[in-house]
Amino acid sequence: MGSAQKKLAVWLWGPDPSDRRLLAKLDVTLLPYFSLIWFLFGVTRASYSSAYISGMKEALNFQGKDYNYMNTAYLVVYAVFQMPGTSLLTIARPKYDESFMASDFVERVRGWIFGHRIVSISLSFGSLHQQTAEPPNGTSNADWLQSVGAQFILGSWYKKSELGMRTAVFCIFGHIGTMAGGWIQAGLLHTLQGRGGLPAWKWIFIIVSVMTIPVALFGWVFIPDLPEHRSAWYLTAEQREHAFIRLGAPLKQTWDLSVFRRVLLSWQFWLLPFLFMLYSVCVQMLQNNVMAYWMASRGYSTIQQNNYPTAIYAAAIFGTIVYAIISDKIQSRWEVSVPIGLTFIIGSAILVSEPSTDAGYFVAFYLSGTTFAVQAIWYSWLADVTSHDVQLRAITTGFMNSFDFAFVAWWPLVFFPVTDAPNFHKGYVASLVTGALTLPFIGLIAYLEKRDTNRGLIKRVPVDDSLAEEDQRLREDEPSQNKSSDAPVNTRTAEVDV
Whole-prediction pTM value? Predict the structure, then answer.
C-alpha cells in the first residue's frame, strides 16, 4: 500500500490495522445497505410531496386539510410500533427482523404496478375519499422500522469516534433521495405523462418499487446481525472476535424485571426524545410543501416548485458532513449542537420577519436546511449516552421516533395547514420558539452526560478472557455455521466517552 493510500486508510478507519480491516468490510456491506434503504425512503418521500403539487391533488380530489389528515393517519400507526420494533432487535437476530421487513417491497411493487389501489379505511376526521397504496410521504411503516433498526445496529458496530460519520452517511443518502425524487418527478412531467394510461406522478412510484428489489436482496446477503452473534460470513473468525471485543460489553444487557424501571427512570429516555421532538417540529417549516406554496404565490413554475426546494437537502448534506466530521474528531455531540440550535433561531427569525425580497426567503430556507444534521448528530449522541445499557438504547431509539411523531402527527394540522398557504406566519413563529428551546436542553443533556461519565455510570467494560471463553462455550451449542474455529483474540479496552 502506497503512502497516500495508507494515509487515506488511516483517516477513514483509524491507525489500528485490525480496526481498519474490519471497518473496511463493514463500510462496503452494512453501511451501503442501510444507506440505500434510506435513499429510497428519501426518493418516495419527495415524490409524494412532488406528486401532490403535480396532479395528484386533483386526481384524487383532495379537499381542505386532506393532505394533512393523511399524514396524521400514517404517523399515528408508525409511532405505535417503534419501541416494539427496536426492542425486538435485542432478542431476534436483525438479519431475520430486517428481512421480514423487506417483504414490504414486494407488496409495494404489486400494489403500484397492478392497479390504483384504494385503501379501505375511513378517516372520520377528514373528507379523504381516495388514497393511493403508499402511506404519506410515499413510505411504508417497514421503511421507518428499518430506519430505527439501522440506528440501533450501527451503534452496535461502531465506536464513538466512528459512529457520527457513519450515521451521517446514512442520513445523507436520505437527503440525496429526497433531492432525486424532486428531480425525477420534474423529469417525468415531461417524458412519461400519459404513458401507459398513467399520469407522471404515478410513474415515480412504479420506478421506485422496482428499485427496491435488488436492495432487499442485498440486505438478505449482507446484514451481519450484531457483533455478539459472530454470524457475518464475509468476516474472518478473527475479525468476528475482534468486532465482539473492541467496543467492550454493556453494563446491562439482559431482559429482566429491572428493565422498565431503569429505562423509565433514566434521563436519557425522556430528554433525548424531547430534544429530537423540538427539532422535528421546528423543521416543519422546511416540509409540508411550505416552500413550494410560497413559490407558487410568487409565480414560479411547477417545475421550479419541484426543483428549487431540493437545494434545502443539498444544504442538509453539507451540514451533516461538516458537523459529523467535527463531532467524531472532538468526540463531542453537544458542542456541534449549539451552532445548529442557533441556526434554528436565525432561519426561523428571517421567515417570521417576512422578508421584502425573495432572496430573504431563499436564504432562510436553505440556511435552515443545514439543521437536518441533527439526525446524525443526535442519534449518535443517543448511542453514546446509552452505550452502557442495551435495553435502554433499543427502547430509547424507538421512543425517540415515537415521541417525535406523536407531535409531528398533529403539528402541521395546527401550524402548517394547507389552508394557510402561502402565509404560514404562525408556523414560522412556532419554529422560532421550538428552535430556541433546543439550546437549554442541549446544555442539560451535556451536563448529565459529563456527570454520569465521571461517575462511571456511562461506559462499556472490557471483555476479559473468561467472558470471551464463556461466550465461546455457549456458542458451541449453536448450529455449526455460526461457530468460530479460532480462539478469541487478546482483550482490548473499549473506547469509552473520552
Answer: 0.77
